[in-house]
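Record 1 of the preview.
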Amino acid sequence: MTGAIFTGEVLENKRVFSIPNFIIIGVQKGGTTSLYNYLIQHPKVAPALQKEVQFFSLNFDKGRDWYFSQFPRVADGKELLTGEASPYYIFHPHVAKRIHQFFPDVKLIALLREPVARAISHYFYYLKIGFESLSFEDAIALESSRLRGEIEKMLEDESYCSYNHRHYTYLTRGIYADQLPEWFKYFSREQLLILNSDDLYKDTVGTMNQVLNFLELPHFQLETYPKYNAGEYKKVSPVIEEKLREFFRPHNQRLAALLGTDFGWD
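->
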């Protein structure tokens, strides 16, 4: 199996750990937790210590040894894959370059969710856990002012972590046509599997087979595929929802042109 045997790095304490063969880079509220949990139940996949290592986005200052220590010990003679899923990666301006510097041959997976549904889910989840206090309408209206100058600060200072960029980006995170070109600068199209997250739930077995083929893993089917981190939220007004659809329509069209695939979101 190509690239399947754990590849190790010798750390300062002389322990040898595997390095990731795959990284699920996003998107937030797009099904990454479900996909990751399905994958790590495969007999040829070993999980990281935690799903969201967030090394290349939030923990880069901890260094490579810390990152390698998040993955399982090398197992002699066992052909296993390992990887992580940090959905902030796709959106963070420095992550594509950082991953390429570490692992230029790694395989990347992006689950893209219909952006209106993603934005609504993002908002109500953050309202539930206390990261947001504004109404949905106000949060959307104030997004640009909350973000003003934040990306510029991140680009000028790689150590700068922007709370607002991480949390208050309900609309911006759904503009995938602005995010993917940065990844295409560093990785070939063959290294990046881009999926419509709706397909993960509408045709779970078929979508998982796509993922397994991409990772060169034998097909393996679970008895059940529960949804992880699924939330039930109240509906927003049809007026607000239509305004969001109008906002995202040109960006979805740009995405379709970029990928040569129309997800049918409009």
